[in-house]
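User: Good morning. I'm curious how fe (ii) ion would be positioned relative to this chain. Could you predict the structure with it bound?
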Amino acid sequence: MTLDLLPLINVIAREGRIEEELFLTTFLWEEGKHVDFFQRFLGAIGVGTADLRSYQTPAYEKVFYEILPERLHSLHDDPSPANMVRASTTYNLAVEGIMAESGYNTYFTIIDGHKILPGARKGISLIKLDESRHIAYGIFLISRLIAENPGLFSIVEEVMAEMLEYAKDITEQSYGQFPDNPFGYPPSVFIEYTVLQYTKRMARISKARGQSLDEIYKDTRKVIEDEDS
Ligand SMILES: [Fe+2]
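Assistant: Good morning! Here's the predicted structure, ligand included:
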């Protein structure tokens, strides 16, 4: 994520949106911290130098090695609003808003259900806080772009429907690697949560279709003030 984010920051900076650029710089640091956390966690459980790529499923590889980097890096050549909506929907709404949130839910369900790994739970709950700010920025950015051009909403619908299928495939394929189901939860529990995240994000972003730019900024300010209070 750290590497794929740079093209988005670059476009926002080139457009002279200094406030958004400043906010986005926190993303880079936070995504870097997340890498450090997981590296430390893997080190602590003794697999810090192991090659874990064989656990990455075909759907996971398609999303993280192809779709996500391609869509973000295409912003270098095509910084149009349509391409920004495509990139940010993929990154903030789908990969962070559906996939990462589903991943945290899986961690918490297993950790809480089996009363294990309290340190990992704390770390992941802090990462989740960072991620909620990243998702909130994506909602703001996409809403801003849709308010200026409502026709772009169809790109959100298309990308979200596509990414929901990849999210479900990732869960199913990951489960397929462990046929004896070591933690005792059926994959359907996690897939239901994934679908719920998709529904929530779509409901939230649909609001932007009828809103003016002023209303988007007002709503965003209110979210920030509520968080501060
Ligand atoms: Fe993030």
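Residues 12 and 20 are 7 Å apart (CA to CA). The domain at 2-228 is CATH 1.10.620.20 (Ribonucleotide Reductase, subunit A).
Let me know if you'd like a different ligand tried.
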